[in-house]
Amino acid sequence: MLTKAEDSRILSLFSNEKTKEEGYKLLVEKYKTDIYYAVRRVVVSHEDANDVSQNVLIKIWRHLNQFRGDSSLRTWILRICMNESLTFIDRRKKLLNLYDDDYATYTLKTAAEERYISSDKIERLLQEAIIRLPEKQRIVFTLRYYDEMPYEEMSKMLDTSVGALKASYHFAMKKVEEFLSKH
Amino acid sequence: MPIIDFEKDKIVDGYKVPDGYFNYLEETVLQRISVEKRRRKRNRITLWISSTAACVIVLLGLVFFLPNEEPPVALHNANETETHSTETMDAFFSEIEKIEEKLLAYNAISEQQTRQIAQDLEKQVTAIEEMMDAGKMRDEDYQMLDYYVEETMYDIYY
Lengths: 183, 158
Fold this sequence. Notes:
The structure holds 2 protein chains of 2 kinds. Chain A is an all-alpha fold. Chain A has one domain: Orthogonal Bundle (Rna Polymerase Sigma Factor, Chain: A), CATH 1.10.1740.10. In chain A, 79% of the residues lie in helices and 0% in strands. Chain A contains 9 helices and no strands. In chain A, helix 2 packs across helix 4, helix 6 crosses helix 9 and helix 7 crosses helix 9. The radius of gyration of chain A is 17 Å and the shape is globular. The N and C termini of chain A lie far apart (43 Å). Chain B has 4 helices and no strands. Helix content of chain B is 76%, strand content 0%. Chain B has 2 domains: 47 residues; 85 residues, no CATH class.
């Protein structure tokens, strides 16, 4: 309820040219960590997550007036996060001329060299298992596992049926379990 | 590794950030927004200046290139040619009439008189040719006069 009221205030302030910046500051304050971690779980490295998060926040500034309220503001923001992250990965793959498997190896190497990452063994193993998932499965898994997003909300966000999302999460879970059991 | 129910016992993602990172992120983004706002404002001013300049150019174009009340140069020249041509024709026929009167008056025309009449006629021919060269005669008028000159010369000499 509080979230909805806060979001309404943000949108109301943002829609007025005089208070636009104030509304935007409230939005950044409220969602910056959600945005960063949603992006980070997909792109993995902190540097990349920083770049993509900034782009997401700039996109929000440019397009928040187009938000029609078909979903919650958080869902709308996370959708931008996922789109921007996938676009970033696609661009990186093209730049490095890497296919999916090679890119997973590249990302694992990046994660291994990453400074801003936990040294806890289980946490690192789970990260590695998630990195090995195809990007879209990774998105479904992280949204469900870490953000506990309902499938209906995820369905609106990713334009995918609830059934397909459940199946995707199920397969991802199996792969993660299998990886963890082997290590 | 022992099998764990990681779905039940949530494992945190383990991603960390540098100290004060989220403040840095907020400040950086707000700075970028401020730059973008300034750029957009500048773009709007540039657009306004360009539009105004374009309007001025179009307006100047309308003032200088649209036809005014005076006829176009070609039409003006055509009218002038027609006036000159008509005046020349009138003058010529007036002279021809005088020559014809002289021819009729002199039953037996002397050689000296004939030369004089021919000289008068040649003056007229020269004047007509000058008019023609200056573009002040219509082609059809010139051809008609040429024909009359030949006829008159014939009358004079034969």
